[in-house]
Amino acid sequence: MPQWKIKAFKELSLEELYECLRLRSEVFISEQNCVYNDVDNKDQVAFHLMGVENGKTVAYARLFDQGKYFDLASIGRVVVAQDSRSKAYGHELMKEAISGIKTLFGSQRIKISAQLYLKKFYESHGFVAVGDQYLEDDIPHIQMIRD
Predict the structure, then answer these.
(1) Which of 13, 24, 45, 111 suits a disulfide with 72, CB 3.0-4.6 Å?
(2) What is the DSSP string of the chain?
(3) What angle do CA 8, 105, 137 make, to 5 degrees?
(4) CA angle in degrees (0–180, nearest 5) for 9-91-144
(5) What is the mean pLDDT of residues 39-56?
(6) Which of 34, 98, 41 is nearest to 68 (CA)?
(7) In what side-by-side order are the strands of the sheet with 56-64?
(8) CB 147: neighbour CB atoms within 10 A?
(9) What would the pLDDT profile of 12-40 be if each residue is shown by its tens digit?
(10) Tens-digit pLDDT profile for residues 77-114
(11) Which neighbouring-strand residues pair with 128?
(12) Are 103 and 124 in contact (CB under 8 A)?
């Protein structure tokens, strides 16, 4: 079971920052074979939710206040290490992320840009698709909102 922690960018240790970037790179760039600019100058205004198990970051998401990424509060870069996916950490991660948004920014609607194949997963956490699907970095996505 991971230990969950949320930190602002300036609170991250070098090791924590490296672990977050390593996990994102492993999944979004290597595993999904998608060359894109993961380091996008938004980490500095995000809060970083990390699930740590045995000293290794196994789950991660960025949390944004409204206006910092979208017009609503948002959750992004949602990722679980490949060898931890069978443990349902993705569901725990989303529960922690939604709770973190409420704690950090107050009770707000949340908007995400979801990979289309994960639509049902996000629906299970109260998100509803809005608009048409679109390509982001050549991967089908859809915007979703949770009230």
Answers:
(1) 111
(2) -PEEEEEEGGG--HHHHHHHHHHHIIIIIIITT-------S-GGGSEEEEEEETTEEEEEEEEE-TTTSSSSEEEEEEEE-GGGGGGTHHHHHHHHHHHHHHHHH-S--EEEEEEGGGHHHHHTTT-EEEEEEEEETTEEEEEEEE-
(3) 65
(4) 75
(5) 96
(6) 41
(7) 3-8, 47-53, 56-64, 73-80, 110-115, 139-146, 128-136
(8) 9
(9) 999 999 999 999 999 999 988 888 889 99
(10) 999 999 999 999 999 999 999 999 999 999 789 999 99
(11) 145
(12) no
Tokens for 96?
């922690």
| Six-digit token string for 109 | 């609607």
The residue type found at 140 is: P
Tokens 């979801």 correspond to: 114
